[in-house]
Structures are given as C-alpha cells and as structure tokens.
Write a structure and sequence with these properties.
70% helix
C-alpha cells in the first residue's frame, strides 16, 4: 500500500458517520434510556459537515449540489417527523435543511466582496437555521462555515471545532462529538467508491423503518 492510500477515504468516513447516525437514532427512538448510544451518535454530524465542505470544494456544479440537498431535505421531512414525533409535525426540520443552508452560506460567501459581507451571510444563515428549527440549528452552520474558512488548515480546523463544540454545548452528551476529529484527521483526501445516492437515500429510509418498528413494537400496526 502506497503512502497516499493510507488513512480513510471519503467513502469510509461516510460509512462511519452513517453507522454513528444509525446508532444515535436507534437510541433516540427505540432505547432513549441507553445514553451510550447517543454518545456514539455524536460522531455523525461533524463528519457530515466536514465531508459537506469537501463536496463543495470538489463539485463541478454547486447549484446542483444545493438542489440535491434541498430535494432530500423535502423527501426526508415526513420520515423525520414520523420517527421522532409520531406524526407530521413542522416545528422541527431535518438535518438536510441544515446542510443545505450551510452550502448556501458558502455559495454566497464565495461571491462576497469583503469580510463584513462574509460575516453577514454567516449570521443570516445561522439565524435562518435557528428560525426554522433545523437539526443542530445555528450551531450546525457555525461548524460548516468554520470548516470552509479553515479548509486548508487540517489540524487547526479540528482544534477550532473541538473548542466550538465545548463552547456551544458544554460538557454534556454533545461533548462526545469531539471524538470525531480522530477519523477526520485520518482522511487521506481520496473520494473512494462513489455511493452518493445510497448515502442520501439511507437517511429517509432508515427513519421510516424506525418509525415502522416503533409502531409495530407498540401494537399500532397489525
């Protein structure tokens, strides 16, 4: 194995994030008393933010990337509501909306003329995430934008993430998200196998399955 192939490629990181997310959601929906499942699940979001920025930096068509994220945000909303609320409930929005707003912020920043414009774009998208009650809200935008602004700083951006995570969330369960820096630091810059739509489709699919399991578990479906 050559040196350039050492470490984890993008596909491997996505698999880690996907497995972590599944464990987290199984814990949230089926076993809320098992806190360790939620701790493991904290690894998923920062890895997705990291890979989102990688996608932005390498995509040939940023508009298509934004449209794809928004499309899956809309597709995923009903399964998200059903899994976590048991009904269609528009008070909270799924994580694809957060990722979409993060990419939109980066897109607008790339055309910004000065640092003040960059700051205003960041603030507006963070406020939008909070107002829409997207998963991770404004904090999610903070993570995405910082990964973008520090894109070339491999170690520094992870140190900043850890600091932000503790500042925003303290030492509760979310503190375990800091462990995600370990696989991210092992990223070798390679894309790996392209399973793009599998990873996109997994999110609404697993939420719908969890909803059906909880319905069957409590005897609502016969």
């Amino acid at each position: 194995m050559t040196e350039k192939n050492l470490g984890l490629n993008g596909c491997a990181l996505k698999c880690i994030a996907m497995a972590s997310m599944l464990i987290d959601h199984v814990g949230a929906v089926l076993y809320p008393q098992e806190l360790v499942l939620r701790m493991i699940g904290r690894l998923a979001f920062p890895i997705y933010c990291f890979l989102l920025v990688e996608g932005v930096m390498h995509t040939r068509d940023l508009r298509k990337y934004e449209i794809r994220l928004l499309l899956f945000a809309l597709i995923s909303e009903a399964p998200f509501d059903l899994a976590f609320h048991g009904r269609i409930w528009w008070e909270n929005q799924n994580v694809f909306f957060t990722l979409f707003l993060g990419v939109l912020a980066i897109d607008l920043m790339q055309d910004a003329g000065n640092k003040l414009s960059v700051f205003l774009i960041f603030m507006l998208t963070a406020v939008a995430a909070e107002a829409l009650h997207t998963d991770y809200g404004g904090a999610g935008i903070v993570f995405i934008v910082c990964y973008y602004l520090l894109y070339q700083k491999k170690v520094l951006k992870q140190a900043v993430f850890v600091a932000e995570n503790f500042l925003l969330y303290g030492i509760g369960v979310q503190a375990y998200a800091s462990a995600a820096v370990l696989p991210m630091l092992l990223y070798n810059g390679k894309k790996g196998p392209s399973l793009k739509y599998f990873f996109y489709a997994f999110y609404p699919a697993h939420l719908l399955i969890l909803y059906l399991i909880i319905r069957i578990k409590y005897g609502y479906l016969m």
